[in-house]
């Protein structure tokens, strides 16, 4: 439940081995990369003058950014086409990447395989298109099967044009009414439901005119084969035999592709994995500094992983790499380490909810544990029900087990369900009913004032803890001004306690406020207004104000007013916790009343089930949002800045199946030479 300590690492390596070094770093998966030129140009960068570093020191004046980024679009297209042809679901495995290989040499074999397989796949595709066309011919020839005419002579007439067309019945009626205006012989062939198939014979010279007329009637031309000198029946038989031959050819070619798949499937998977690695390598290179013979890269590594990365690099590349490991605390303030949160499993899912607000700064206290506990407390108090909580808990567990992409949300849902169950036992609520189990603490609807007062009391406790968190953060940052005199520091904390006490005095009906209380409150306000000059005096800083004193006091004056107003509004805002606890019970009572009015056992049960579903889904979502609002606006604003940089190491996800859906018929390119220059 903390932020992991970081080390600053510098890696200087031989350009000739840059790709291999970068692959190892990516596979290690712990380096958070920063811009190398920015690091080298910073004031505190020092490369010790030693025999090991002499070559690196000579390179520094000639360093420049890496600009010649390689384009892998051709390789990617070929690999994806092969994956589509072989119907593979490749995985990125470590054993495919950790081998010592040259990517270009390895890809030559893949290009050769693609050249052969692509040709076979194109042949198969051509035969499939041929089969489709022949089926169309067969379907159209069946309309003429009853006429004993030579189909070749009919289609290839020199002076006349023959067409088989399909029209809707409505348009066919229009056609019949205008026969005298059409310079063609039109013969109805068959009636097929909503459409009519007709044959048209016209002079070649009038073909264009007739076609314009048919176009106005939204006709569809039914193509006929031209290379048959026989009847329609005989042509159909020949086409069916040709289709059978095409199928035999396709089966033969598919067996050939299957053989290639058996021989080269692993190589294709390797190619896919290695291409992903090379793309990541090129991405990393954009942050490097390149010299004549050496490259420089810098980044942050978790303290627990720094020595392992260093030893892996040294064991593999020996004197070809220079490793510089430095403590982050000794670096310049302009160098901001990333934040890597480290929490136990039950709290870890709530890191995502914290990051929705912001990432904790490296030198800030990780708020995840406090957030998780307080959020569960707020949610359970507002949505306390043993049965409904059990539903949420079960749903969360199922999500974690069977939907890995939703595992984080499943963990949160399971925790919320558990909290709801605990408060359900305290409230004596089971699927909304307060008559099934006894209440260990209090029944909300029977103790409305107590519930509302308890909600405000809970808010006061959480706000006080928020102040303590803020003071701790200021202490860690060595920010004396905010720790002692800030609105969320000791002065703000004391002011809040005094303000709550004053409200209590009024609520208790006591006459007047003690003078010492009023003077103490006024003194605290003065301390907050004069926090800048006071902290400057304490630290010995000569400059009391960074800007105009008038502007400073106006701003602080309004700031104190805001502090007073927000202190009350933040506290009162927690009354919604009690309100939703009452609303939860009240909503069930509404459904229970409607169920009683149905006068039907089955109907009542069904209505109660529907009511519980609505309560779980709708009210559960509203409570989820309201609890989040209390955390973000009433608590985080007190102690959490969220202006850190998230730790994002350069890595490649291993053993993750990446299914590529490609339509084989549309993905293959016609010209292999256009895809890659051998």
UniProtKB/TrEMBL annotation:
GO terms for molecular function: ATPase binding; proton-transporting ATPase activity, rotational mechanism. It is found in: Membrane. GO terms for biological process: vacuolar acidification. The chain crosses the membrane at residues 375-399, 406-430, 450-472, 484-507, 513-530, 574-593, 605-628. It is a multi-pass membrane protein. InterPro entries: V-ATPase_116kDa_su (IPR002490). GO terms for cellular component: proton-transporting V-type ATPase, V0 domain; vacuolar proton-transporting V-type ATPase complex. Keywords: Ion transport, Membrane, Transmembrane, Transmembrane helix, Transport. The keyword Transmembrane applies. It comes from the Bacteria. Belongs to the V-ATPase 116 kDa subunit family. PANTHER family: V-TYPE PROTON ATPASE SUBUNIT A, VACUOLAR PROTON ATPASES. This is V/A-type H+-transporting ATPase subunit I. It comes from Caldanaerovirga acetigignens.
């Amino acid at each position: 439940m903390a932020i992991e300590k970081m080390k600053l690492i510098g890696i200087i390596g031989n350009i000739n081995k840059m790709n291999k070094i970068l692959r190892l770093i990516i596979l290690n998966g712990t380096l958070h990369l920063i811009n190398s030129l920015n690091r080298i140009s910073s004031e505190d960068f020092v490369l010790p003058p030693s025999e090991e570093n002499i070559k690196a020191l000579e390179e520094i004046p000639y360093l420049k950014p890496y600009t010649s980024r390689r384009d892998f679009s051709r390789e990617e297209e070929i690999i994806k086409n092969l994956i589509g042809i072989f119907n593979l679901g490749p995985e990125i495995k470590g054993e495919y990447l950790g081998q010592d290989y040259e990517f270009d040499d390895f890809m030559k074999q893949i290009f050769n395989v693609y050249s052969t397989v692509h040709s076979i796949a194109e042949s198969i595709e051509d035969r499939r298109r041929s089969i489709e066309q022949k089926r169309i011919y067969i379907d159209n020839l069946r309309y003429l099967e009853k006429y004993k005419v030579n189909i070749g002579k009919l289609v290839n007439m020199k002076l006349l044009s023959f067409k088989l067309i399909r029209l809707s019945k409505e348009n066919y009626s229009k056609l019949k009414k205008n026969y005298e205006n059409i310079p063609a012989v039109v013969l109805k062939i068959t009636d097929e439901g909503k459409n009519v198939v007709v044959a048209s014979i016209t002079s070649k010279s009038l073909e264009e005119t007739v076609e314009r007329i048919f176009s106005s009637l939204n006709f569809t031309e039914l193509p006929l084969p031209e290379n048959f000198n026989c009847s329609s029946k005989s042509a159909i038989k020949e086409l069916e035999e040709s289709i059978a031959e095409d199928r035999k050819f396709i089966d033969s070619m598919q067996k050939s592709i299957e053989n290639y798949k058996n021989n080269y499937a692993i190589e294709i998977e390797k190619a896919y994995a290695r291409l992903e690695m090379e793309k990541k390598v090129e991405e990393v290179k954009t942050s490097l500094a390149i010299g004549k013979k050496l490259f420089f890269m810098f980044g942050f590594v978790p303290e627990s992983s720094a020595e392992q990365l260093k030893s892996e690099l040294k064991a593999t590349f020996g004197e070809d790499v220079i490793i510089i490991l430095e403590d982050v605390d000794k670096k310049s303030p302009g160098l901001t380490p990333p934040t890597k949160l480290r929490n136990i499993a039950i709290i870890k899912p709530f890191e995502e909810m914290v990051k929705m607000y912001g990432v904790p700064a490296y030198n800030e206290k990780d708020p995840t544990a406090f957030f998780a506990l307080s959020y569960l407390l707020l949610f359970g108090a507002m949505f306390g029900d043993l049965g409904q909580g059990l539903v949420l808990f079960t749903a969360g567990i199922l999500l974690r087990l069977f939907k890995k992409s939703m595992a984080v949300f499943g963990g949160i849902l399971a925790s919320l369900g558990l909290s709801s169950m605990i408060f359900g036992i305290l409230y004596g609520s089971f699927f909304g009913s307060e008559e099934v189990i006894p209440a260990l603490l209090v029944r909300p609807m029977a103790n409305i004032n107590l519930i509302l007062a308890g909600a405000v009391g809970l808010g006061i406790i959480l706000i006080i803890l928020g102040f303590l968190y803020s003071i701790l953060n200021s202490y860690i940052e060595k920010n004396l001004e905010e720790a002692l005199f800030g609105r969320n520091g000791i002065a703000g904390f004391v002011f809040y306690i005094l303000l709550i006490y004053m409200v209590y005095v009024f609520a208790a009906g006591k006459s007047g406020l003690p003078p010492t209380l009023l003077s103490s409150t006024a003194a605290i306000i003065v301390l907050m207004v004069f926090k800048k000059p006071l902290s400057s005096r304490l630290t010995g800083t000569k400059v009391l104000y960074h800007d105009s004193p008038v502007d400073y006091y106006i701003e602080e004056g309004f700031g104190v007013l805001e502090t007073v107003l927000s202190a009350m509004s933040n506290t009162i805002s927690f009354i919604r916790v009690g309100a939703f606890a009452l609303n939860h019970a009240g909503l069930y009572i509404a459904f229970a009343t409607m169920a009683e009015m149905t006068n039907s056992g089955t109907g009542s049960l069904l209505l109660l089930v529907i009511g519980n579903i609505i309560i779980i889904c709708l009210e559960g979502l509203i409570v989820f949002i309201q609890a989040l609002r209390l955390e973000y606006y009433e608590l985080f604003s007190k102690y959490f800045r969220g202006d850190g940089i998230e730790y994002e190491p350069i890595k490649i996800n291993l053993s993750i199946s990446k299914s590529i859906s490609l339509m084989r018929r549309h993905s293959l390119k016609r010209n292999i030479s256009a895809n890659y220059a051998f």
